[in-house]
Design goal:
With about 325 residues, this protein is mostly helical. About 70% of the residues lie in helices and about 0% in strands.
């Protein structure tokens, strides 16, 4: 009974400390709100409010360069114009090409690099750091750097290609960014160079999480290297592959600064991604209501792709 009495006293004392008594300062709940409150206010100010404001603008004819003009409610007219605009679908096709090619290359190269670094050879630390260098740079800086690298007059890349083409008797100058066929591959190449290390990090984490006893059991059964890769490595790393695809799809769908600095959507409009189109409609043509509708459509598209990827990830984890 004495022990019960002591425990109840301790419990009542703890409960009394959680309440705010006169002259004893803030309670635990008030202190928690004091720390969480600024974060919630920033989230509302920089995420929730702009989203709601954009949704409202998408149903109007508002133009940011005419703040004094009357704002009219146009309903779903902006959405109808966006969905019936053939140039928008061209931009979406360019975006889909960029997504598919860049993410495929990043997965293949990232997986190969992760398998190599997972072996822990002598210069493992040096190469791990060296491979990560591209993703530490700002996308705008990377775009500017590669723009000069591809420059047809004094770019190193074009100089090397022309030097190789000369002995083969191939006439004419070579330009990566000025060719309508090669320029889409230029942005794919640069994005792959920059973000393959990120994919490699995710997949390397997946490889390091595989229990060693699985490979030991496979060796006892005399399984080949291909069988161990197909039956152990790939299934265990698959959730990390799906996560890498999810993150890269989200980032590449809204890719702007790298492409803007590298090609600015040219030549013509072959590299004009949906984000570049959105910038031109909003800040060059000042069609704010129309561009807001396009932004909401892009947001819904990204959300839909993300939802499908997350559902697929959940199914993989349940297997």
């Amino acid at each position: 009974m004495a022990f019960v009495h002591i425990d109840n006293t301790v419990i009542r004392g703890a409960e009394s400390k959680s309440r705010r008594l006169p002259g004893q300062g803030l309670s635990d709940r008030a202190l928690a709100w004091l720390f969480v409150g600024p974060t919630i206010l920033l989230l509302l100010a920089f995420n929730i409010f702009p989203l709601i404001w954009t949704i409202w603008l998408s149903f109007t004819n508002f133009r940011a360069n005419r703040p004094g003009a009357d704002v009219l409610w146009v309903g779903i007219s902006n959405y109808s114009r966006v969905l019936n605009d053939e140039s928008i679908w061209e931009n979406m096709r360019a975006t889909a090409h960029f997504l598919t090619c860049s993410i495929t290359l990043q997965l293949l190269l990232g997986f190969g690099l992760a398998l190599m670094l997972n072996r822990r050879f002598r210069t493992h630390s040096f190469w791990s750091t060296a491979i990560l260098l591209p993703m530490m740079l700002a996308p705008a800086v990377v775009g500017t750097f590669w723009k000069y690298f591809f420059e047809p007059q004094y770019g190193i890349f074009n100089y090397i290609v022309n030097f190789v083409r000369a002995p083969l008797g191939l006439a004419g100058s070579f330009t990566m960014l000025g060719d309508t066929t090669l320029s889409p591959w230029a942005i794919v190449l640069v994005d792959t160079w920059m973000w393959t290390p990120y994919v490699m990090l995710l997949l390397l984490a997946g490889l390091r999480s595989i229990p060693p006893y699985l490979y030991e059991a496979a060796e006892i059964d005399r399984a080949s290297e291909w069988t161990k890769f197909w039956r152990i490595t790939l299934p265990m790393v698959m959730p990390f592959i799906i996560l890498a695809v999810l993150f890269r799809v989200i980032e590449n769908f809204k890719m702007f600064d790298l492409v803007d600095q590298l090609t600015n959507g040219g030549p013509g409009s072959v590299t004009e991604l949906a984000s570049i189109k959105l910038k031109r409609e909003a800040f060059e043509k000042w069609r704010t209501g129309y561009s807001s509708a396009l932004a909401i459509i892009l947001f819904v598209s990204i959300y839909g792709l993300s939802l499908v990827t997350v559902r697929f990830l959940e199914r993989v984890k349940q297997r």
